[in-house]
Specification:
This protein has about 260 residues and is of the alpha+beta class. The chain has one domain. It has helices at about 1-30, 140, 225, 235-240, 245-260, and strands at about 45-55, 60, 70, 75-90, 95-105, 120-125, 125-135, 170-180, 185-190, 200-210, 215-220, 240. The strands form two sheets. Strands 3, 4, 5, 7, 8, 9, 10 and 12 form an eight-stranded mixed β-sheet that branches.
């Protein structure tokens, strides 16, 4: 009987060890895109990434206030372009998403109070194949009170991108004028609401992140695609939207904007 009890105890010990080893194996092979780097027993080495956004139209740099031809129908200009990006980071060569910054406010207008066409963040060292971000303000931040943030924070009221507690943040602002032979018409798209949040914008770009170094990346915003991709924007007859007063036009703008990053 004593021998049987000893054998049974050995069996229990071996069975317990097998469970522990299996658990370790599962943990080590976790392929979750948003895995917590703090769970890694070794400190995660990181480098800095700076993404610069530039405007282009007809394959050339686009300047604010300059007049451009639109489909040989009329001329237009751009006087303002502001937008929010959420969960900014990269896709590494293993296909895993790495987030470096939760929110950034981009104001492309050169005469803006705080001109900002860049976003800077840290990523784990490695090789990446894409820059990724979401367009707009993600839900947990969109429902926040802008008064809770300091003046330098992207969500502070000083950026004038907040509607009300009910409609919350404006995701994008684009404004300008359209010129016909007989008239000058203002156009604008102020878009927002959860329905117009666009998740998972990915821009192909191969880059290496190195410890203690900064990697510069330039992403072009192709204004041709903003004007005419999924839908053709009509500045003259349907060029005004504060979202809820003209949701179809707001959706057209957002859907075009989503694929304008190159």
């Amino acid at each position: 009987m004593k021998t049987d009890r000893l054998n049974f105890k050995k069996y229990l010990l071996l069975f317990g060890a097998a469970i522990v080893l299996t658990g370790v194996g599962i943990s080590c092979n976790n392929d979750n895109d948003d895995d917590d780097d703090n769970n890694n027993p070794q400190p995660v080495q990181k480098g800095q990434v700076t993404v610069n956004f530039e405007l282009e139209y007809n394959d050339a740099p686009m300047n604010f206030d300059e007049k451009y031809d639109y489909n040989n129908e009329y001329e237009f200009n751009l006087t303002k372009l502001q937008f929010y990006l959420s969960d900014i980071g990269g896709i590494n060569q293993s296909g895993k998403k790495k987030i470096g910054k939760d929110i950034e406010f981009i104001d492309m207008s050169p005469y803006a109070t705080r001109y900002n066409n860049t976003v800077t963040f840290d990523l784990p060292v490695g090789t990446y194949t894409q820059v990724r971000f979401d367009q707009g303000v993600k839900d947990e931040l969109n429902s926040a009170d802008p008064a809770d943030y300091g003046p330098e924070h992207p969500l502070h009221n000083s950026n004038t991108m907040y509607w009300t507690w009910k409609t919350m943040y404006i995701f994008q602002k684009a404004e300008g004028f359209a010129y016909t032979q007989n008239d000058t018409v203002s156009w604008l798209y102020h878009t927002g609401t959860t329905d117009l949040y666009r998740e998972g914008v990915e821009v192909d770009r191969s880059f290496d992140v190195k410890k203690g170094e900064n990697t510069d990346i330039t992403i072009m915003i192709n204004f041709n695609k903003i004007l005419n991709s999924n839908a053709e924007l009509d500045f003259i007859n349907d060029g005004q939207s504060h979202t809820m007063d003209n949701m179809p036009a707001a959706k057209d703008f957002v859907n075009n904007f989503e694929i304008a990053f190159e």
